[in-house]
Amino acid sequence: MWTADQLYLEKSKGKAVLRFIFSFDGIIDFLTILPFFFLSGFIVFRMLRVVRIFRLFRVNSQYDSFNIITTVLFEKKNQILSSLFIIFILMLASSLGIYNAEHEAQPDVYRNAFSGIWWSVSTLLTVGYGDIYPVTTAGRIIAIFSAFLGVGAVAVPTGIISAGFVEQYTKKQYSDISFTDIKEIGEIIADEVNGLSGITVGQASADFDLHIYVILRGELTVVASESIKIQKGDVLVAGSKKIVK
Asked: What is the average per-residue pLDDT within 94-110?
């Protein structure tokens, strides 16, 4: 809180402090120091010792690996939520199907339409504890299809996250290249890591000793005038100023 104004330079001291308090790092810091004030009180407050593990998030946040994980989850959140929604629908469908097939044979196990939720979760996620299982032919057929669908249900979000990691590491490899070492015209992906995102072409040219020829933005080719603001994900066709000279 004391150095919040150095973290948010564009804000006043009071607004910077409030911004940090309600930020992810601020909440983690609060949960970390909270047990210090309550451990000497009631026994129930001693459970707050557990929240000290949140300090690990503060440590990990300083490393690129943690930043890459959070970036991937944020950028792929729509695809991940869509896949989770599909898994939820499959879970409800298999639960209702197994209830209709097994209720008469096992009324104590499948008591209502949602009593098969536990079974559907363990089946779709390929865990299969075996505490609840179908005994009828129809129930076993539903179980077979649910098991096959479960493999795909796990693979879809895993593939999305894996593709996101590959994409981020590829961008990082581009951003680790020293701009002044570019011996010929090349392409640079603008992002927060290399500092090109959010600044103008003129600023990038002055700060990074670059000569930017054009900007590839989606399907558009933008003429790189000095006042154009570079956006995240833009592909800059550029070279070192030394080449131009």
From this structure: 89
129: domain CATH number?
1.10.287.70
My answer on whether 134 and 195 are in the same domain is no
Please give the distance of CA 166 from its chain centroid, rounded to a whole number.
Answer: 13
Q: Which domain holds residue 212?
A: 180-244
Residue 170 CA to residue 148 CA, distance in Å, equals 33
- Residue 85 and residue 148 in one domain: yes
Q: How many domains does the chain have?
A: 3
Q: Are strands 235-240 and 220-223 parallel, antiparallel or unpaired?
A: unpaired
d(CA 25, CA 109): 46
Q: What is the pLDDT of residues 144-182, one digit of tens each?
A: 888 888 888 888 888 888 888 887 776 665 555 444 445
Threshold 0.90, pTM exceeds: no
Q: How far, CA to CA in Å, does 186 sit from each of 183, 196, 205, 221?
A: 9, 15, 15, 15
Shared domain check, 91 and 168: yes
Residues 83 and 145 in one domain: yes
52 close to 35: Cβ distance less than 8 angstroms: yes
- Binning the chain into helix, strand and coil, the percentages to the nearest 5 are 60, 10, 30
